[in-house]
């Protein structure tokens, strides 16, 4: 499970690169689709991570029982102690990856929400511009 640290934020494009509002909408929808695919990938990695953590917990429970039995007896087996600490170390790494994945998913969600709000704002601006043009035409016709 490899987590990309690259930003899933907005690409730096110039509005003048597009011929129409439809071109802008198409480009924004393509960016959103890429973000959604990345989010799905992170969710799959998160599920796999959770499965691995669960397997480690089960393994850790068995190892812990062995160590407790050894504690009451003649002392600890060095190999078992080594396995215990190795298991704890791997579990900590998985927990860290889980945190990164959760934050990445939240970041994508925020970016998708921002894009939706920007689209609503743009639609409102276009609608208000059309109203202003209609009002201006009416005033000009009346004048």
What value does the average pLDDT take?
82
β-strand number: 0
The span between the termini is 69 Å
Can you write the helix and strand succession as a string?
A: HH
Helical residues, percent: over 70%
The low-confidence parts are 1-10
Contiguous helical run count = 2
The dominant shape is rod-shaped
List keywords for this structure.
single chain; 143 residues; mainly alpha; 2 helices; 82% helix; 0% strand; disordered N terminus
Structural topology:
Blueprint: H1 21-72, H2 78-142
Helix pairs in contact: 1-2
Describe it.
It is a single chain. With 143 residues, this protein is mainly α. 82% of the residues lie in helices and 0% in strands. It contains 2 helices and no strands. Helix 1 (21-72) runs antiparallel to helix 2. The N and C termini lie far apart (69 Å).
Short description:
The protein has 143 residues and is mainly alpha-helical. It has helices at residues 21-72, 78-142.
């Amino acid at each position: 499970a490899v987590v990309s640290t690259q930003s899933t934020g907005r690409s730096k494009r110039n509005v003048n690169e597009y011929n129409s509002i439809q071109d802008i909408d198409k480009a924004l929808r393509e960016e959103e689709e890429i973000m959604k695919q990345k989010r799905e990938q992170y969710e799959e990695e998160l599920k796999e991570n959770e499965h691995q953590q669960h397997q480690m917990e089960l393994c850790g429970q068995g190892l812990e029982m062995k160590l407790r039995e050894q504690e009451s007896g003649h002392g600890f087996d060095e190999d078992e102690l080594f396995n215990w600490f190795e298991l704890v170390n791997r579990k900590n790494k998985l927990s860290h990856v889980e945190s990164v994945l959760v934050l990445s998913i939240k970041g994508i969600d925020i970016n998708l929400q921002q894009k939706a709000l920007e689209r609503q704002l743009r639609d409102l601006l276009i609608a208000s511009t059309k109203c202003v043009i209609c009002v201006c035409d009416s005033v000009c016709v009346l004048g």
